[in-house]
Amino acid sequence: MLFSSIVTILSAATAVSASVVPEQKPLRLIPVNRQSDSFERTPKKLHGRFLHITDFHPDGHYKVGSDADITCHRGEGNAGYYGLEKSNCDTPISLVNETFKWIEENLRDHIDFVIWTGDSARHDNDVKIPRTPTEIYALNEMLVSKMVSTFGRSNATGSETNVPVVPTIGNNDIFPHNIMLPGPSKLTKEYVELWKEFIPEDQYHIFHKGAYFSQQVVPGKNGKVGAGSDGGLVVISLNTIYFYDANKAVDGCDVKGSPGYDQMEWLNVQLSLMRDRNQKAILIGHVPPTWTSEKMNWDESCWKKYVLWSRQYRDLIVGHLYGHMNLDHFVLLDSNELKPPHLKNPKKGKKHKKGRKKKGRKGGKGKSAMPGFSRISSDVCEINEYDPEEDPIITINSAESYLHSLREAFEQMLIPDKKSESDTNKNHVDKWSERYVMAHVGPSVVPNYFPTMRVVEYNTTGLVDGAGMMVFDPHSESAPPPVKPPKKRPDDGSVVPEPPSKSSPPGPAYSVQAFTMMSYKQYFANLTKANEIHEHNLIMEARGELRKRDNTAQVQYEIEYDTAHDDVYKLQDLTVGSYVDLARRMVDARNNDKDHKSTVVATEEETDIVNTADLEDDIDITDDNVVDADKKKKKKQKKKKKGNKARDKVWHAFIKRAFIGTIDDDDVYNFEAVKVQQEELGC
Fold it and tell me: What is the pTM of this model?
């Protein structure tokens, strides 16, 4: 469709580049997974793993040896052949090619499906080369072809490798970025064409309207997918641009007929039907539902509905996966309060000032359409936002505040206020942590830090035999469960979804059962090493000393950490309860110290590092005194840093992993256990 465009883009990039980026060749689109009600008569092997990959941001204008300050498009600098880590440069096509080659060699035959959470075009960060819709669609089509050629063709043994791929739209996959009007539109029509191999045919009409859909990735126990399935796993791809606070073209999720409202209604119907079919669901999107004192991603009304919907359908939701933020982390959302903890528990001793008023798209007319959805506009503080699309070198500082605000939110949600007898948090702990919704936020391929991807393992108990082949129940083949018609909803849309039956056990996100996510391996590519090897090979070739290059992927991804074998996180599984426990240990990592209060605040003795200038003011500057003072200073620094390191081991690991290991230990330890200060705002 648009491959002439992508060839033009890449050719133009080559013309201005000192090195030639391999041109993408058109690839025949082979169906990856076509939904139908037909039986899966051929035995299907389940590996119990899936790939989550996000934020490629391919850039056909990337120039090797260019200046990172000019987005690696011009000038002279240190832009490597496979990309430049810790920069604001996007992904060269060479890294895209090698990433898919590595996936084909190492992952393709060992996973069941792929979750691809958006941003498949470059950023619009070069005023001399502004993006166009044609370029955005062409870059997306290139990645679609990569996905299809990797996961939709026969493998080396001759058997079909038919791995379902479920994409979602990112805020940089549209023009202009962040702004998306209600559909049907030229944009939604374009993506129906681009993603026609991923979207079930019977959902084309709903995708035309809102760019969201669902795809069944594991058949039901009767061997069917789609409406006739009894059981199985479905991935629901949400269009978070209609929830996104930065999208000024829409009106939240409370105004009937708005795209956000309609999408939430659709989600409610889909989850209700899935409950009737005994199916389980993974919810995915691009922009995560993060809301802390430092970051508010979604419109308030959309955030509240999403959290409430997630609680009401907790019996069937397996998990929530997002991208966009570039940082490796997770968020906890409290469905009991339906607002973030910094609004419920303002800082003590400070006057709580009013923030920005919620008008228009921030809540329509100021009156919620749902019971219990009272507006809290007067409580919303100004957000000092961390923007993941800024220069990542700068945003390491702003990301520090964002990550601290996450930790502060964990403290306020999970650690009771011992001074308050009426604090509802005192008795909130339940065996399964069902009041909380937990969302994974996956880091990116684009090398803001190091390129990365995640392979998640899920429980297949009861789904497969000893050889890993799916077990179909012959008694359910001819009798799929009856689908109940959805209940009529009043015109004001005020009905909250039905909760699980009181006799229902905890869902797959809360207790281990079929489809529960158990662990994940986080992979990363060391671009420093890959670029050095490439330069070395060029020198060897020029000397005639390198006869033949290795035909395997030139960029190798390696395991950064594996939660199944992790002495720091100690996650027995990926249930919400395990993450609640991890969040508590991040808040207070004082091992077996019952005398300390459970608080994130560090004492002066624990956090102070002696300043050399202060030390010199108190001593005579003689050679002997300088030596003695230097020894004392180093000893005190070592002792206090060691104490900090031991106490904050989990927190420091979280920080290190958030940045994909690209910040050194000294920078990690500077993320001390201190509360985020909102100064005069009192949030």
Answer: 0.82
